[in-house]
Amino acid sequence: MAGVIAFSARPPSCTSHCRPKLHSVLQWRGLHCGSSKFPSTAPAPLLLTHPLGRTRPDSTPRASVGSADYVVEPGTSVKFPKELQVPGCSSSLVLLGTGYREKVFAIVGVKVYSAGFYADLSIRNTFDSWKGKSSTELLEDSSLFSSIFHAPLEKSLNIMLVRDVDGKTFWTALDDVISLRIKKPTADDESTLSTFRNTFQGRDLKRGTMIFLTWVEPSKMLISISSSGFPSNVDAEIKSMNVNLALYDGFFGDNPVSPTLKASVADGLRMLHG
Q: I need a surface site. Which of 25, 53, 184, 233 has the fewest CB within 10 A?
């Protein structure tokens, strides 16, 4: 069934009262934008502020710009706090990089969501062996991103929709990423994928909706979804190493669905390690 991605009349925002606490082709089917042509201007900025965040100047990726409290993803103008308390995590996480996912329709690129990748600050001490490498060297070193996934530290991908999309369509996009990387899913994988799918089915994901995919450990990923500010609860747990790794690889493997995100994270790691 077709999903719909449409421009909304007014941009959502998350102001200071908010409570903080996939390489395949994404099948964003049935695209509608209110006219036969896409507007020539980008959507109005979406704001993600975090009043409790403490400033960590050295965690700001060079590819992004911002203030002392947040970083602006340049492709979508979404603002991500530099430090964030994510549902299910034992401590606050710091922002390593930002990027966006773009889908091309009839030669026109349409940005679907912006994303920020966060990790526990202990990542600074965990990867000393990469210290001194350039951003390009880090970006091309697949062992680095694999090590981040397997490391015993919490990390989270904060997805901010910049287009309306229904839950079924969003899940189909994630499933396309995962299925390319799991050729023969086990019974546990199938059960986990069913849980994953049911978490998004029937949801109306409006522009401004936040989706947190949080790897608290390699075999356990938490999903938190909120259409009105930062989520405060965990909506589902995904307990499959294969599924969790496949999704992570979709963003940080050799063929990432958001090259801008992976490049920004590589630069953020370089700056974090000085």
A: 184
The residue type found at 143 is S
Helix (H) or strand (E) holding 178: helix 167-179
Q: What is the pLDDT of residue 55?
A: 35
Per-residue pLDDT, 151: 93
- Amino acid of residue 90: S
**Helix pair 187-200, 167-179: axis angle to 10 deg:** 150
Return the structure tokens found at 88.
């299910």
Question: What are the tens digits of pLDDT across the range 119-151?
Answer: 999 998 878 888 889 999 999 999 999 999 999
Tell me phi and psi for residue 130, to 5 degrees.
Answer: -95, 0
Alpha helices in the chain (DSSP H): 123-126, 135-140, 142-150, 167-179, 187-200, 241-252, 259-272
Please give the radius of gyration of the chain, using alpha carbons only, rounded to the nearest integer. Answer: 17
Q: Write the DSSP symbol of residue 124.
A: H
Task: Annotate 152-163 with b (16+ C-beta within 10 A) or e (fewer).
Answer: ebbbbbbbbbbb
The closest alpha carbon to 267, from 78, 139, 154, 76, belongs to: 139
Q: Taking a C-beta distance cutoff of 8 angstroms, is the pair 224, 202 a contact? A: no
Give the distance, in angstroms, between the CA of residue 145 and the centroid of all CA atoms in the same chain.
15
- 48: DSSP letter: B
Nearest to 117 by CA among 261, 253, 274: 261
Question: What tokens appear for 175 in the block?
Answer: 């499933």
Q: What is the pLDDT of residue 105?
A: 67
- Phi, psi dihedrals of residue 223, rounded to the nearest 5°: -115, 125
**Residues of the chain where predicted confidence (pLDDT) is lower than 70:** 1-67, 104-108, 274
Structural contact between residues 130 and 136, judged by C-beta atoms closer than 8 angstroms? no
> Kindly report the CA angle at 124 between 118 and 126, in degrees rounded to 5?
105
**Which of 64, 62, 68, 88 lies closest to 78, judged by CA?**
64
